[in-house]
Q: What sequence folds into this?
């Protein structure tokens, strides 16, 4: 796809359905978690309900992403950025909750920013076992993930993990990811990765995903940072697209996006 192919934000996307028959039993064993709507609003998570028109760009992104995954036979996508504070965690969370409104799909959202985890703080979710524990084989899927609504499983970290690169590269991590996919049988898995240029964690994890979405922040991300991040991702995996994130906190329109796939 090209920049010119991106749909206008005002046009609401048609719902894309790709249901799988039968809900795996593991979903019923996940502890339920209901985010506080006021907390989500303060964090600018706008896709948990459709009252806020700012959810529309995320629904468009959801539909375009699902079409890309379907076209290539993919199920997993990682979201990262060149540097910190580009909005990657908010985009990952909004995108996951947008998918969760489609009851026919099963979606998993996992915080893989092990050195600087933010997803639990955004959602107000604290668990005894972290994603880092699950990756190391010390916690099961049902101990780690929580069910939000009927079709979204979320895994967060309650503390940073200093040895994150070694943890990600350990074969045990690959086994944990495979077990999660086998137990939950998700249609879409979204991983919130650390920034590409902050450490080698994001590049190390690229082997576990089908595609990587790169978030750039207008007015913040430098062209050389973006170019270097694109090059590194392409060397290690598949660059699924670049999203330009532009937002003005002083206006009511927090989100404006441009897509390049």
A:
């Amino acid at each position: 796809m090209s920049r010119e192919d991106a749909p206008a934000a005002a046009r609401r996307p048609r719902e894309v359905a790709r249901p799988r028959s039968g809900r795996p039993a593991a979903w019923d064993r996940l502890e339920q978690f209901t985010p506080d709507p006021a907390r989500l609003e303060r964090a600018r998570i706008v896709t948990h309900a459709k009252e806020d028109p700012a959810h529309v760009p995320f629904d468009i992104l959801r539909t375009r992403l699902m079409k890309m995954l379907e076209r290539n036979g993919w199920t997993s996508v990682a979201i990262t950025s060149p540097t910190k504070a580009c909005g990657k965690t908010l985009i990952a969370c909004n995108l996951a909750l947008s998918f969760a409104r489609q009851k026919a799909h099963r979606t998993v959202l996992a915080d893989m920013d092990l050195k600087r985890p933010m997803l639990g703080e955004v959602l107000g979710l604290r668990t005894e076992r972290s994603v880092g524990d699950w990756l190391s084989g010390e916690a099961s899927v049902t101990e780690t993930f929580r069910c939000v609504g009927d079709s979204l499983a979320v895994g967060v970290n309650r503390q940073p993990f200093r040895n994150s690169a070694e943890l990600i590269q350990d074969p045990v991590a690959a086994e944990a990811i495979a077990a999660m996919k086998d137990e939950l049988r998700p249609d879409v898995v979204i991983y919130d990765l650390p920034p590409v240029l902050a450490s080698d964690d994001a590049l190390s994890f690229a082997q576990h995903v089908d595609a990587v979405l790169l978030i750039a922040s207008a007015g913040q991300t430098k062209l050389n940072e973006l170019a270097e991040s694109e090059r590194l991702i392409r060397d290690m995996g598949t660059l699924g697209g670049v999203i330009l994130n532009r937002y003005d906190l002083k206006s009511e329109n927090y989100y404006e996006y441009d897509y390049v796939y």
